């Protein structure tokens, strides 16, 4: 049986169990072993083992039944116990209710008895107190204060309580009969009040918080309690302002006093509020007045800086003070204190800000033009100027005398930085010092001054000067500086736009002034773009005029009809070489001066006009066979320069022109085939015919018949 039990090991596996049983039986292994396999012996072993398992099962079953019986018996016993406990608990609960009712009854009796005793004792106490006060009153009436309480300094607290009550009683007495005694009581009242304040002051100097608390509690019922608080506030500030930083000293003082007032006074929030009010109305107001009044009329820039700094530091101090208990509405309380200090300065702030910016901007501009020895021209306004502008836009003609600027753009990054820096400070001051309802309006007025100084007086003026300095299209060796003006104007306007978004937008984003600002900015951009477009267009005309001048002076008729057809050693003509060099310089100049899509736009326009010029120029000559080859070489070089434009349209135009030049050299019999080629098939037949007519053999070879 023990052997059988050993086979039931966890985890139990029936197959494993049978295998192990067979393995332990001699001759029963499935793989054989020392003995041969014996099925009968294995069967016998299995039958015996089955019997053992039956016996083991019966034994375990009997044990289970015994344990179940024992469990049922113990469950019944436990249930009886629980019932007994419940009955006991019910009895105890009833006893508790009876005891509670009895206690309530006794408590009611005691309260009733206490009320009766109080009803008897209170009048008695009042009578005793009245008798005691009458005794003291008689002493004042007789004029002889014999009681120890009035003569012993150690009993000043008790004396104060008595005299305070006598003072209240004396006020109810008729003056004609008790004038003398009322005066004596009042004199003693004030004398004790003075002594208590002196005692409080002395205790404060000694740092005796407990004594200060006792005296303050006594003085609470006296009229001089407010004076006691004033004395405390005054003494707190003694030696507190030794440094030059009144704001930091105030924060440290309030932090220290805040811990103390809670231990001394019964209403610390009132005392703390009074201390802060005293500091604001005396120390801070005097400090602010001293700092601002000395610069208000002598140095407006320093005045505005001081105003911004003082107001910022005062509001920061007020924010720190909100952590203290100052009553129910401490934010309104502190705001009123700040307003009382700065209201007279804030009312005139924006006017002074505008006057300063107007003066400062004009000075920065004038200082720059003086450094250039430039007398600023007066740009016309009104209907005449508008008429000139319209004529210039439509005809692209220079109006007025041309100005030689000697390469000066009259745009200064340093000047722009100074103007933007001043405006940034102005926006910061405006945001801090303006009333929230006036903030958008004030910020807009500052923005208008920036527009006047930066956009009108500087950028627009430089554009006008730049336009006046652009030479006519037939000028020789003209220096084109307008693209430099464009480059600097774009850079400056990016800075202007950045300040618009970073500084101005947060101040006006939620107000109706936003639409006005955006409209004003749009007008400024449009005005500058018109002048930039006009200047760029006239500059391109000058470039084309310069190229035309090079071609006119350098290109010779014999270039394309050489005397010796067999002795042409050049790859392309001198005129072509100089034009290509000039074009490369101008393309590079445009790339440096423009940004974004403007580069492609300008280069497209320049490339188209460049192509038109070369196209028209080639049609002025007649070409021999070798001259035609040289013309193709020239156009190939022009096309190589056209690649620098990086504009597909320009390259396509020169590809077509190159294909047209092939008509100058192709064999007469192949003309029709070439004209039907991919690049020429869509062109006007008259244009093709015009190019063929440029050949010197046009008439002799009867080439016109191919276009009839």
UniProtKB/TrEMBL annotation:
GO aspect biological process, one term: Golgi to plasma membrane transport
Domain Exocyst complex component Sec10-like alpha-helical bundle, residue spans: 158-706
Annotated GO CC locations: exocyst
Keywords tagged on the record: Coiled coil, Exocytosis, Transport
Keyword ATP-binding (UniProt): no
Keyword Coiled coil: yes
Matching InterPro entries: Sec10-like, Sec10_HB, Sec10_N
Coiled coil region boundaries: 43-70
Domain (Exocyst complex component Sec10 N-terminal) ranges: 39-148
PANTHER family hit by this protein: EXOCYST COMPLEX COMPONENT 5 (PTHR12100:SF0), SEC10 (PTHR12100)
Family: Belongs to the SEC10 family.
Designated name of the protein: Exocyst complex component 5
